[in-house]
Amino acid sequence: MDRKFDIIALGELNVDLILNRIQGFPEIGKEIVADDFLMTLGSSTAIFAANAASLGSSVAFLGMVGNDGFGNYIEESLRKRRVDTSLLIRSERYNTGVTVVMNYDQDRANVTYPGAMNFMGLDEISGDAIGQAKHVHISSLFLQENLRRDIPGILELIRKCGATVSLDTQWDPSEKWDFDFRKLLPMINVFMPNEKELMCLTRCSDLDAAIAAVSDYVDIMVVKRGSRGATLVLKGGERHDMPALLNEHVVDAIGAGDSFNAGFVSAYVRGYPINECLSDGILAGAINTTAAGGTGAFSSPESIRVAARTFGKEIKI
Ligand SMILES: Nc1ncnc2c1ncn2[C@@H]1O[C@H](COP(=O)(O)OP(=O)(O)O)[C@@H](O)[C@H]1O
Ligand SMILES: [Mg+2]
Predict the structure, then answer these.
(1) How many A from CA of 255 to the centre of ligand 2?
(2) Quick one: average pLDDT of 162-185?
C-alpha cells in the first residue's frame, strides 16, 4: 500500500509544566516557591508518536491544539522528533491543554486543563487526512470527550479509508469505563490495554475472565503487564505470554506502555509476524526503562541500538 505515512497518531496533545523541589504544599491565599521547573511535551499519544518515529516509522500527528504559544511549542517538539505536523489542527476557540505537575519525591499532584484536545471529534477528522496513512493509533480515549463520544464514527471512517487501527484506551479518570467493547472491538485491529484497564473495561476481577470476555470480539489484543511482560491474545482465545526483558537499573517506567505500543505497531505496519510484533513491543518497553521519562531512551537510532544491546538484542530501525 503506497501511502504518505505509516502511522497517524490520533489523539491528545498537551504541555507538561513540571515543578520540582517545591518548598511545602500549596495553600489558598499563600505563595510558595519551587526551586526547579521544566516544560516538556506531554501526553501518551505524543510519546507513542515520537518513539515510533525514532524506531523508523513515518508518523504524522492528528490532534488539536490552540493557536497559542504552547501550541507552537508542541508543534516544534514533535518536529524535532521527526513527527510530521501537517495534520495538526489549530483551534481558534480553545487554548492548548496543559498539565501542571507538582512533584514531591515519589508522589505528584497534577492539575490538567484539557483544552483544545477535548473538542476534537469526528467533525474535525477528515477522510483526506486519514487516507494518507496505512495505520491509525488512538490513545487515551477517556481524556478526550468528543473523541470518545464519536469513536464509532471515527473507527468507521478509518475502515472506509482502508487503514488499520490500534487502540489503547488508557485509564479512565472517572472510573465509569463507559466503553461498549462488544460493539467497538470488532472495529479495531489491535487492542492494547494494560491488565488493570482490561479488567475494569470488562468488569472482571481476574485477568483470565477478562481475556475470555473479549476474545470473541477482537482480532488481536496485547495486554501489557508491567515487569511481567505482555500477553498476546488472538480471536477465539489463543494466548501467548511473553516475559519482560528485565533491567537491573530501571530509571523509571513512565511511558513504558506507550513505548511498547510504538514498538509493536511499528512492526505491525511493516507486516512482521505477530510474535515479532510482540517481541518488538517488549523490547521497546524495556528500552523505555533505561532513561528518564517516556522518550529519553529514544533520542536517536544509535541510543536505541545501544540500549537494545544491553538486553542482548539487535533492533531493526
Ligand atoms: N520494569 C520493567 N522492566 C522491563 N520492562 C518493563 C518494565 N515495566 C514495563 N515494561 C515493559 O513495558 C510494557 C508496558 O508497560 P506497562 O507498565 O505494562 O504499560 P502501561 O504503562 O500501559 O501500564 C510491559 O509490557 C513490559 O514489556
Ligand atoms: Mg498505558
Answers:
(1) 7
(2) 97
